[in-house]
Write a structure and sequence with these properties.
243 residues, globular, mainly alpha
Length: 243
């Protein structure tokens, strides 16, 4: 159930990518960013209030785990629900990054993180001081990159000729996209390795992996420019622009 809940989190970035709020026929140019950001913010605040209350009430904490225990880690009984930092990460992504790398950053977490756990637990031999393994990190990078490339193949089909497409008739195969994804995967894997449960679990991998991953991709795009800056970053001052 926890793994399914983990994958269900992809609904958040896909809401932005497919621009579902556009079907509401608002006059906002970036309606999905606006509506998504507002919903994310209020759900995050609601979950945070629930957590703060359950830390003060043992009875409510027990009730909370009876209801939602199947999607929570055991240690989340004494630290905040990991959904909260994930929502915070998505709020930041919605406000500051292009929709394509928002999805890729979430794929690093949703696909790469379970891959790291699987390869680390089944094949991990070279262990580090924190219990994580080199095999887990490599599994994260490889599987996270594959998932990202599959998404970009879909994007190429949906929007041929786009800067984030893997191929275009005018420019041929976009080698730079492979480079950007691999840089993002490496950044994400390193951040997952060093992620911790400090500050009541607030700075765990649900927060740092997607943010560090997209930051790595964006830096690669700035250092080796092949994509316009406004495709990598969203100008937050344009959030409420209308048609």
């Amino acid at each position: 159930m926890r793994k399914l809940w983990h994958l269900f989190g992809l609904v958040v970035p896909l809401f932005l990518y497919f621009d579902f709020a556009s079907y509401l026929q608002t006059n906002l140019v970036h309606s999905s960013r606006v509506i998504g950001s507002v919903v994310i913010f209020f759900v995050m605040i609601l979950l945070l209030c629930i957590d703060l209350y359950r830390f003060r009430s043992r009875a409510f904490n027990r009730f909370f785990f009876k209801v939602a225990g199947s999607i929570l880690k055991r240690e989340e009984k004494k630290r905040i629900n990991a959904t909260i930092p994930y929502l915070l990460a998505n709020l930041i992504l919605f406000l500051f990054f292009g929709k394509e790398i928002v999805v890729i950053g979430s794929l690093f977490l949703m696909i790469g993180d379970p891959a790291a756990a699987y390869f680390g637990s089944h094949f991990g031999r070279l262990r580090f001081w924190n219990g994580k393994s080199l095999e887990g990190m490599l599994g994260f990078m490889v599987v996270g990159s594959i998932a990202s490339f599959l998404f970009l193949l879909l994007h190429t089909y949906l929007e041929p000729g786009d800067e984030f497409a893997l191929y275009s008739n005018s420019r041929g195969f976009h080698i730079y996209m492979i480079f950007y994804v691999l840089v993002g995967a490496v950044f994400s894997a390193i951040s997952e390795f060093f992620a911790s449960n400090q500050f009541m679990g607030f700075f765990d991998d649900n927060l740092v992996v997607p943010l560090v991953g997209v930051t790595g991709m964006a830096l690669a795009g700035l250092l080796f420019p092949a994509i316009p800056v406004d495709a990598l970053f969203f100008q937050v001052q344009n959030l409420f622009h209308v048609y």
